[in-house]
Amino acid sequence: xxxxxxxxxxxxxxxxxxxxxxxxxxxxxxxxxxxxxxxxxxxxxxxxxxxxxxxxxxxxxxxxxxxxxxxxxxxxxxxxxxxxxxxxxxxxxxxxxxxxxxxxxxxxxxxxxxxxxxxxxxxxxxxxxxxxxxxxxxxxxxxxxxxxxxxxxxxxxxxxxxxxxxxxxxxxxxxxxxxxxxxxxxxxxxxxxxxxxxxxxxxxxxxxxxxxxxxxxxxxxxxxxxxxxxxxxxxxxxxxxxxxxxxxxxxxxxxxxxxxxxxxxxxxxxxxxxxxxxxxxxxxxxxxxxxxxxxxxxxxxxxxxxxxxxxxxxxxxxxxxxxxxxxxxxxxxxxxxxxxxxxxxxxxxxxxxxxxxxxxxxxxxxxxxxxxxxxxxxxxxxxxxxxxxxxxxxxxxxxxxxxxxxxxxxxxxxxxxxxxxxxxxxxxxxxxxxxxxxxxxxxxxxxxxxxxxxxxxxxxxxxxxxxxxxxxxxxxxxxxxxxxxxxxxxxxxxxxxxxxxxxxxxxxxxxxxxxxxxxxxxxxxxxxxxxxxxxxxxxxxxxxxxxxxxxxxxxxxxxxxxxxxxxxxxxxxxxxxxxxxxxxxxxxxxxxxxxxxxxxxxxxxxxx
Length: 608
Hints:
- This protein starts with a helix and ends in a 20-residue tail after the last helix.
- The protein has 19 helices and four strands.
- It folds into two domains: 7-63; 119-186 and 253-594, Glycosyltransferase.
- Mean pLDDT is 73; it is low at 1-6, 66-111, 116-246 and 594-608.
- The protein is mainly α.
């Protein structure tokens, strides 16, 4: 009896019977379809045989052994572990298993970023003395939203998330007050005509020299954007600290702290609705490999701003646009560990990590006019991710990016420009200074020489009656864009800025508020960062103009137009990211309470 049962339970017998039954059925069909009547009897026999065998199958199938647990049989060759939209990551550890990114209560929602297995191939960037030679490149700033690439390097072991830290606890959930902001936000908001590019005889604006501002009249006056009395209870968000016991600059991006910062410093429901629409646009246009595509989003168009041809800079700006988009997402409290767009942030960071060059550069294949910007934008995103999440791979990538930044700094002037050895310009310095600042908040100490050089360059470009204005390079005429970038940089790195210099800078900036002249998101970005830190009358005036212009020109799909000073080079991802960063200013950086310079931090608080 046991032998009989084993025979009927043999899958090979069942398969053989099934094959013969099907074959007889096919033969039957063929015989009956013939025009000649010969073979009909054979067809009937085959049909009977097929029916009999099918009946036999009904007898045999119940004897087949069932898989454990009653589940369907699994096939080893089926790939049910494909992750992140079937992306192939060349620098993943081949032994690494894909982590489950679903959220679990009281546990981190996502695993650390991938760790590269190319540790032995990493090249330590050399920081050496470089002769002070002027760059061969023209004295005009590069693309505001340049491109950058990313290399395969990283070696740190997986980092276990520290659930006891204040940052992680703050990231674990959004406060109910903040959720109400999105529940109440309007589905649509009025959109007005965008100012057209000025005629050819109108001199274009740029970070170096702006033409006399002319008011831009929108086709419709935006509605009132003020939030009516919104009750906000006392903040329950703790002060968060990163490695080195340094206060977390990013503590206001989530939860009740975000709600309070938003309302107390000038934001409202409509600005948050605009940010939400922008993030939806950005994530919808992310490439499968995690990057944002320059060519697919209109970047690299040569419009010759300032009358100079830069060869369509921006057309290969994958890492620059990826960095800017990630900064926009993280500015709203999204990380690769938690949030509605956690997967988008994760894939974007993975792209940067896997494309980081062995020397730490994140500039990718960007052109000479865009490469330094590209590295700065991508490196800033990685440093913020490292400071907020403490992910081991992000920290390692940020450390190498900071090493590259310092290796590119001119040893004499302390500045950065297009290539190593360039004496520097202020437009480049702003991004690199923020890279060093964000990296320091992740516990990665910049060298004292690099910090001193940065401060030396900032002094060299001061201009105006009391030094409140700034120029692109020392000795040149000051501009509003450079004045904004210098003031924002000085405030955000914790420098003490005398009130007389602040007053002089604010007077210049308020002469060209958003809505006056051609839209310039780059200028607005730095002016917004600076004035938000000051929280005075100038900030209120600027903020009203900023909201009016941005809310009235955002397109229905969430993007901002590219008809701006640098929009041709950066495309819609650049314009949308920069505008979004402006509207996130209310909570993106905490207001500085300590004016201590980076260079004055105790050495014990840093790690190399």
